[in-house]
């Protein structure tokens, strides 16, 4: 395998969610400067789910007009759109217009919708494109997808986003002109540290990352060293250039599994027929569940679960969880266990760890061991193993479905987005409408 192709697969995967991930980590710097304030995360959640119209369109076209949609052209369009939208955010994210007499960050919201459409649609286009390459490069692609969350988080740490300082201030309890009779009460006030560089620079960085993704995609399509490694020269983009028989051959022929007998009996009409319909449903249910938990349900309460243990615990949890994603993909390169029973075990394990995290978030601002260093250590480890276990499940399912053909990878991306959508729909009212979670003041909250 070519190390050059591995690097291109990582850079290509990195463009899948780097824009939205970057926008989320930049929120502490953006929110104080826009009229929406901390309602912005709720608006972003809604916009991201509305952007699922992109993957819905691609999936429906694949289902009812197979071969009519040029996959490569769609990928070029969404990467270029993501590059331009990220670049424009650097100029217009603070601009406001009056909507119904109220100032709104219309440019920020519209450009965010386009970024969300790009990232959501990548789930049903980037993965199927990996059928062009040898099977081993799919795991490398998942490493790049993990890096799309890690890299913005590291840059935000360098930028100093969200770093809190507790400053002593004096609050007068007697607001009279005679200050000698006023009583002073010292308390701590929360202040965010100024960033090392502006949000504009950060958005230009995101645009540069999308441009790198575009260059990587160009090379994956046209560089001679990569083209020579294409496993099936007859497979193009699922367009009408080939005959129906050739397209069917490319869709159904398993590309990987040295342990599979050539004359195995078909157990279903899904993919190569290696799995029964019960197993197919089982795999897709697990895929939707782990993506709901890891993409929307637990991230929506991460601050509630971590901040009671301190600002350092929160940043460690966010950063090391982001590291755990590509680490799980790296492990899958060398240890690839495809047992459906083992995937179920890891899903149960990850769900159990996630239940602990959710419980601590519900107890915020005074969860268990809030005043103890061990509490922070347990929470950081919980986030690491939660992401590590579920990310491994996602990668192995991707590898399994890659063997079942191009169509299976399209449905893989669609189910990923469906799981994320269901998780967001569930958590949005709980967090933003009913206010079931309380964050407390990081400088003044005291627990018994």
From TrEMBL:
Kindly indicate whether the keyword Transmembrane helix belongs to this entry: yes
- What catalytic activity is recorded? riboflavin(in) = riboflavin(out)
Membrane topology qualifier: Multi-pass membrane protein
Give the subcellular location. Cell membrane
UniProt keyword Transmembrane, yes or no: yes
Transmembrane parts of this sequence: 38-61, 73-93, 105-129, 141-164, 201-220, 275-293, 313-335, 342-363, 375-401, 408-437
Instruction: Give the record's keywords alphabetically.
Output: Cell membrane, Membrane, Transmembrane, Transmembrane helix, Transport
Primary subcellular site in the record, as a coarse category: membrane
Tell me which domain of life the UniProt entry assigns to the organism this sequence originates from: Eukaryota
Q: Which InterPro entries does the protein's record reference? A: Riboflavin_transptr
Q: Which PANTHER family match?
A: RIBOFLAVIN TRANSPORTER, SOLUTE CARRIER FAMILY 52
Q: What does this protein do?
A: Plasma membrane transporter mediating the uptake by cells of the water soluble vitamin B2/riboflavin that plays a key role in biochemical oxidation-reduction reactions of the carbohydrate, lipid, and amino acid metabolism.
Q: Which family does it belong to?
A: Belongs to the riboflavin transporter family.
* Record's protein name: Riboflavin transporter
Species classification? Eukaryota, Metazoa, Chordata, Craniata, Vertebrata
